[in-house]
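Records of this kind hold a single protein each, on a pair of labelled lines. Below, a sample record shows both lines together.
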Amino acid sequence: MPAPRPAPADHLHITPEPQIHATPKRLDAAPARHDATPTRLDRIPPATPTPRDRLATLRLISGIPLHSLRKTARTMRYRLHFLHLIPAALLLAPAAEAAESPKKGEPALTAQTMRSGGERPPEQRSVRFDSADLQFELLPDRYRLNGIATLNFTATAPVSRLVIDLDRNLPVSALAIDGRTLPRSAYANREGQLTVTLPRPLRAGEKVTARITYGGTPHVAVNAPWDDGVVWSKIPDGKLWFATTAEGYGCDLFWPCLDFPEGEPGVVDLHITVPAGLKAPSNGRLIGVDTLADGRTRWNWRTRNPNTYALALNVGPYEEVSGSYKSRYGNTIPMHYWYLPGERAKAEKLFAEFAPTLDFFESVVGPYPFGDEKLGVVETPHKGMEHQTINAYGNDYAKAIEGFDWLFQHEFTHEWFANQLTAANWDDYWLHEGYGSYMQPAYGEWREGRARYAAMMNGQRGTIQNKVPIVQGRVVTEEEVYEADKGGAGQDIYVKGSWMLHTLRYLIGDTDFWNVTRLAVYGRTDPRPGNFRPRFGSSKEYEGFVRQVTGHDYGWFFDVYLRQAALPDLTMTRTGNRVDLAWTVPGGGAFPMPVEVSVDGKVQTIAMPNGRGSIGNVPAGAHVVLDPDARILRRSEAVEEMQRWQAEQRAKRPPRK
């Protein structure tokens, strides 16, 4: 069982009415400036900012310590400065002829843009991404996305160029460094990496601000979220329903970023301008909503340390149910669900799952990592994704025997295992998806007991493929993890990772297992709101945490389950009244995994030093069952035969037309 936690929360306050309105929400008394004729983002002249603009930008980005950005006391000053930014930030798009809808998979992407993670150019490794201010303008009649990105970096080593990932389908129309507009010859984006020659080289510790104006037709996903891009959709009454996904191809599909796991910016401000009557729920805290002169609205959000692929644009005629949750740690967490019109009853039922799911994670793992922002979920025209504090949900309110919505629970799991704990290299993404899959059976156990847990684990077992190891021991791209034809483990990082965790929990016990988990997630076993920050992790570090907590070296365990494809095989030989057990593992190494054995219904645990063990005095007619509670991930001939049969059946099916 998990370590003792503080007393559980005892109440949940729900506010059933929508909390975000199309009218502006003023946080200060500054005079409105929306009467001026705004400029559309794709028509911004590459003018040098005025001293006033520089001052506003400096105070907005550099004058506030990063650790203070999320404090309420800063909100009014932030809002005041934003309202005085250059006119380009006040957007107004005159009516234009509707463009033809781009087809799925269009416009085409370069190989570079489809590559996320992997080895990075030295210029990207030579900077720290401090903050980003991202202005977006969505023009659905033209299927266009315009943006202004103000990116702040600190050099960690001498560097003379910036290399920023950005899909070339969103061409750059202007670029300034520290307020100085660069000539077109100073930057280029040939294959999806924007290379910027700095006016002067930077020494380690020096800061630089890049302001990038860009826009175009973003790539349309073929089958989101498995294929990334944007989704242009409409609800039955014809209103726009729009979403982005970027886990596979990366953040550069719609904003200039560093497209690898450790490329997270410290803080991000988003300003999303959308047509009248639509809403734009996004990451982090809502700072306010501005109404522009033409009736459009601009949604201003702020989030900290977002996972690179976890920033998301969601636009639609949303309604909202919201409430607050009194955490067992004493803080109050805002909860929001944005859903489509006409689904009120279904939405409220899904929303009712938020509080108990949150309580499960806080009782078993630890504090919700983003309690100072929100627990947010938005209905999307694709299946789902772990967008930080704004999880995408597209499961059609499906019902299942487990009694909870698996998709909501899985994506919410990633707030701990992806957004709080982020694997520094795609090679270690079992930390995201293995835990992401394991926490559903763990939740079933918490709700209903061991029978539910066992049934859900058994449901995963038959899908483990064991074709390649979970980790490859090198820096890899997303595709090299998820795609089998590129050598990836694919779904095994989910289900085999989950079963490895199941086996580890049996091996080291509940208390140590959950302490290892807390160390991986928070870097400490005593997390409380305010004493941790989002962190990066790895398989090597995780193994070290197991050794630290248990006092034993379990390298043999991870050698087999992480670094080998084939599963350990347990064999039994009966000679007279003696039962001999032996483990055979790929590579022939040691595997001293203890085994539970049932003899005529009586269970005993057999130590297996050097991978071998025995039981004496077993009557010849006794019924012997190895591992009766299926605690160990091991080879199963039944599973192998079932998978061969399934493959044969698939081969008999006629090809799809």
